[in-house]
Amino acid sequence: MSIWTDARRRDLITGAIGVWLVVALVSDGWAHFNVPELESFFTPWHGALYAGFAAMAGWIGLLAWQSRRAGRSLFSGLPRGYRGAAAGVLVFGVGGVADLLWHEVFGIEVAVDALVSPSHLMLGAGGLLMLSSPLRASGVLREDKPWTAAAVLSLTLSTTLVAFFLQYTSPFPMPAVVESFVPTPEGTAGHLEAEMPVIAGLSGYLVTTVLFTLPLLLMLRGRERFAAPVTVLVGPIAWLPVAVVGFPWIPVAGALGATAGAVVADLLPARVQTALPIVAGGVAALVWAGQLAGLALADALRWPVSLWAGAVVLAGLAGAANGLLATVSSAGMPAASLPSTPRTR
User: What is the DSSP letter of 170?
Assistant: First the structure.
């Protein structure tokens, strides 16, 4: 069977090129963060990123050419889910030209502005359309089909890409909990300055909880469970932002703890059939309790117990709310549980 007719091989090739794109993107993010003297669009990191894009564009082009050879139109004959990838190639290409012009006019971003630069967001949108094509092609979004390795990889890469652009909310690279909090009554001098870092930190826990519980719930709704879904999703979300800032010890300790929490989440409920809100809320609580435990072991936890314990409970409630919404939207489907038998489809 050729790669043109074997959907799994086709989607795995797309996923492999997607890994290239994401790794190159993270390395470029590292350069923006750690090499502030960058003054040109033409850098090795941009080169790796755009080489990955060229590989993806060439691969989508081959699929389009094959559909034309089979007598179908160039784009309508693309496999299900891949017309969005073709659109992603166009969006990313336009974004690349816009990025070149943007840097020439406004210079190179070296801080949080790099994550919200319009040209970079256009690149992210194009990348998301390309990375998610195997997920759309698998049919799991619209039908009750088993998850394949390519679909899981596509969902993980797509989630990781979104996490990359939301790094400024992430509790992993620069945890707010490592900064001391001095309660300052409202209306007194310094109140806003004392509370804003805590507010930003709590918001980060909520945003990142939503970021990994939504794709997790999507996986758990399927009729077949994939091995270690929590670890597969949380691992990149925790470690890639830490890689961007150069693996300093304290963020590493937090990422190690969160990863341990994710592993525990994959193991503990393995034989328990339970409801989605309990699963999602429990996973969120375990992941963040693990991160905070890692920071405590590194002697870096500075928030009072009312704040850090409250962050875990708040994140658990947010996860449970997502699970409740998923339950309502999937009424009539069987209750979900984490996998008791690893599947490696």
Answer: -
